[in-house]
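Contributing: when you submit paired examples, paste them exactly as shown. First protein:
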Amino acid sequence: MKKVLAGMVAALLLGAPAAFALDPIPGSITYHGQPRTKLMKAPVGSPVYNDFFSGGQRYHETYIIQPDRTLKLVDRVLVSIPND
């Protein structure tokens, strides 16, 4: 019984990252796939930031440069705009 429970917990933990992955939205750097140019001078693991508007909302995204020089979206924040 303990082995079955341990297997179920392991399966849940392994599937969790995919469940929480961020999908690009209009305005994201990777919305239409990876950029054609690679960031060759920036070290692997460096953050890349992107601020943009989408659907009338302002967003701030953080990407991390991967070893193959692609960008991985790791964080998105909806920036609140104060009402005038």
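Second protein:
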Amino acid sequence: MILKDYLIIDPHGMHARPATALLRLARQFKSEFSLKKDGNKIQMKSMLNILSLALKCGDTISVIIEGDDESQAVAAFDNFFNEEMKKF
């Protein structure tokens, strides 16, 4: 299991476009993914689950990755939160 915190850097927060892109990214891996914010933990299985966290710019989110390919997944998530989130 890998637990990693990320800062939401998009000025609009986690809206539909980045949530969809995050979900597509997660579906490329066999691992299970969860997001946690302020004690609320969701399974990353739908865009609505992600949006239910109401992530705003400046919020910190914990990503929990469990599975055989978690090392590869965390590298992809690092790129997503540090680079791709700037493009939305």
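If you have annotations for the second protein, write them as plain sentences, like these:
The beta strands are 2-7, 32-37, 40-43, 60-66.
The first strand starts at residue 2 and ends at 7.
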